[in-house]
Amino acid sequence: MLSIRDHYLEHLVVRGASSEVWSGLRLGPGGFAVPVALKTLTTSNVDSAEHVRAFLAEARAASVVCHPNVVHSHELVHEHGRYWLGMELVRGWTVRALLAALDANAQSIPIPIALTIARDIAAGLEAIHEAGLVHRNVAPDNLMLASSGRAVILDFGCAAWHVTERVRSTPPTVALDLPYASPELRGRLPVDPRSDVYSLGVLLHHLVPRRGNVPFFLDGIISRAIDPDPARRFPSARDLEIALDLVAMREGWMCTPTYVAAFLADVMRTIPVVDAPSRAKLEAQARAKLEPASRETIEPVPPRAILEQRAAAPPAKPAPKAAAKPARPTADGSLIMKPRPRTGLVGVGAKLAERPDAPKPRAPTGLGKTRIRLLRH
């Protein structure tokens, strides 16, 4: 393992066009070790003054935001001739991986879970905006769903300060996920926090693709968030979050992070937990699930041979019963519950006699005109 000033690098998680992310440990005295993620420039860009300036700007932007729904940056280290940004290690899946897994299984996300994810992202965006920043790249690859059920915003590479006036510098379009970029970003016009509101509205539109059966006011919220005119959108991420809260409370769609975590564990059980976004790997795994499995050619057996084979075969023993599994949520949000075995009295008369260890009932005792049958347990 590589050593970087009280850090040990374990393995490369993802490599992008200009930077890469490693998982590692932050070490201290007495066996102190904290899992961290370390972001740095790739070898080909480490000597580029332009890329170094952009990386330091990203580190400064990420350092001013502290919120549960935004990845937390711990420190900036200069070692081995390059900068390393120490960040919180978020274990889970990207929103891109969730959408790919749902498409591969022809499933849809339950609306309560979709709203919970969107509300988490809106809360993180509000913290970013209050710090004086515009994220400008709210897209499925930059949004992690932690295995605990928490949504986390990543990557401040396109973030810019807006403070007192609207941002006038725009990132190159190659750095953006264009379907989620606002019209003003695509047109290289000045942007403000309403640009991030638009991106979140597009994400919510993809999380709830079939809106025919949803309340009309939820459809109105999504339509307002993705309005091409910024003046007609929600003025802030907080206002969008409040609107989603009201819909969730009105319809009884409030759910906890633990329920979201259980849903993710059920849908993503075939896709390994990752430490940072790895779009190519996760999409390849989702596509592999769609490919038909190879089948061996089996020659048909004549019916007579089947009968002779069954007659010669010894009687099969009953298979042992599998251990009962705890209830878990399914992709549609419902729970699979197994009935509990009944205890105590299981029946009277003929039903009681079906139990081989059941005691025989006593002879009826007459009490006047009343006849009582006593059952011994």
Topology (elements, then pairings):
Blueprint: E1 2-3, E2 7-15, E3 19-27, E4 33-41, H1 49-63, E5 73-79, E6 82-88, E7 92-94, H2 95-104, H3 111-130, E8 133-134, E9 143-146, E10 151-153, E11 160-161, H4 183-186, H5 194-207, H6 216-225, H7 237-251, H8 257-267, H9 279-290, H10 303-312, E12 328-329, E13 335-336, H11 350-353, E14 365-367, E15 370-372
Antiparallel strand pairs: 1-2, 2-3, 3-4, 4-6, 5-6, 7-9, 8-11, 9-10, 12-13, 14-15
Helix pairs in contact: 2-9, 3-5, 3-7, 5-6, 6-7
Number of H/I helices: 11
Overall pLDDT metric: 77
The shape is globular
CATH superfamily of the largest domain: Transferase(Phosphotransferase) domain 1
State the share of residues found in helices, binned by percent: 25-40%
Order of helices and strands: EEEEHEEEHHEEEEHHHHHHHEEHEE
Number of domains: 2
Description:
The chain has eleven helices and 15 strands. The protein has 377 residues and is an alpha+beta fold. It folds into two domains: 2-88, 2-Layer Sandwich (Phosphorylase Kinase, domain 1), CATH 3.30.200.20; 92-272, Transferase(Phosphotransferase), domain 1. Strands 1-2-3-4-6-5 form a six-stranded antiparallel sheet, covered by helices on one side. Helix 2 packs parallel to helix 9, helix 3 runs antiparallel to helix 7 and helix 5 packs across helix 6. The longest helix has 20 residues, at 111-130.
